[in-house]
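ok so I'm stuck.
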Amino acid sequence: MRLDGIDILRGFAVSFVVFYHFFELLNLQNHFLYTYAFSLGQLGVPLFFVISGYLIYHSVEAHIRQKGTFVGVRTYFLHRLFRILPAYYINFFVVFLLAYFIFGTMDTWSFSFIKREIVTHLTFTSYFIYKSSGLGINGAYWTLSIEMLWYILAPILFILIKKDRYYGILFIVACLYILSIDLHVWDDILGLSHAQSNYLPMQYFLYFQLPSQILYFLVGIFIYKYSLQTTSLRGSYFVIFFLLIASIFYMLSSTSLFINIFLIKMFITLLAVFCLFLLFYNKKLEVLKPLSWIGKISYSLYLWHMPLLYAFQKYNLIHELNLMSVVALFLFLLFVISSLSYYYVEKGGFRLRHLLLK
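replied:
not stuck anymore, here's the structure
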């Protein structure tokens, strides 16, 4: 399934993430663009998750209705695995070599711990077990752990939930989970104290787990079920509404309520990505054709941007070159590497999938 606007949305999502990480990882927090990068960065991953909720639910439904439950689920999983695994495993192989032999991020790790890290990364479980991922140079892996759980959960939900109101109940349960973090319910259960240096990271670790992030996937499902018509906004009204959403989110994302209260953060972000999705998901906009291509290779862009930025940080290029030269070099390398990954690795996975499913 490929709607014209989905790739545009993916292009927005990966651009938001890369824009934010560029300023964050190169320690450019004092740059005047950082506040914009931070704000937009809060939308990138949620937008990816809403897109995934929309597309994955459609994929499960289409496969099961066309081929029956058993064959449909099997075909669905093969589609997902050959979509995700080839590019991810090659990326992880390179990340491991860089982390171990060049950047030294694993110098203090025991050999047994390194073996466990390899196993958990290969099985997409590192984030859940160690509260970190990417061997110190590719933190983007955490979202893939959540995505893989969603890929497993989506067909289960489709098969078991026959009435839409139960998705609403699941939505409420997820909200209650976030509220429990805001009310510090988990502090006693997990033995956490405000005095601990890792207290705030642990709160975020709880927040970024599937029980809360599933809200984005559910919104994608709701859009798929109830909003399949093309939005009627045209021309200048379309642009005005888009700028209005971006402006409101920018103002709200800098407030203390957004930063300190997870439930408010979630609802503001949900509203913004919901509106963005409805604006673009079924549109064909020639002016945004380059963004559509970026969306097409967005998975490879997402995988490779953080290791590349870490290399720039490690070798202090931000001080060796002027900012514009760093931006130009980064974008050139990122698009070259990601294009090679997409056209030779991701598409290779597509071809292998077609051969197996003949």
